[in-house]
Task: structure prediction
Amino acid sequence: MSLSNKIIAALAACMILMPGIALSATMDEEIDFLLETVGNSDCVFTRNGKDHDAEDARDHLQMKRKRGARYFDNSEEFIANLASKSSWSGKPYFIQCGADPRVTAKAWFTALLEQYRNENREQAS
Result:
C-alpha cells in the first residue's frame, strides 16, 4: 500500500470514528451537568427508602457512573440504567426539591436532560 493510500485509509478511519468521539464528549458533558445540577440543588434524593442530601446523591451517582460504565452508551441509558433505580434492590430512586412534589429520579433527570439539550440548541443557533 502506497503512502498516499495509507494516509487516505487513516483519514477515512478518523472520519468514521469522529461521530462516536463527539457523541462521547457530549454524553460526558450531559452527565456532568446532570450530576452537578443534582449535587448543587436543595433536593432530597431517596434511595432504598432512605433520604440523602444532594451532595450524597451526586457522589453516589458518580460512583455508579464509574463502576457501571459498561451499562450505558448514552445519557438516556445512564439515566435508565444507573440514575433511576438501585442496582442492588431494583427500587426506583425519587427526588423532591423544596415544596415540589416528589418525582421519580428517571422523570427528574429526563426532564433536566431535555432542558439542557434545548438550551444548548438555542445557544448554537
Remarks:
- Residues 24-124 form one domain.
- The longest strand covers residues 43-47.
- The helical segments are 3-39, 54-67, 75-83, 105-124.
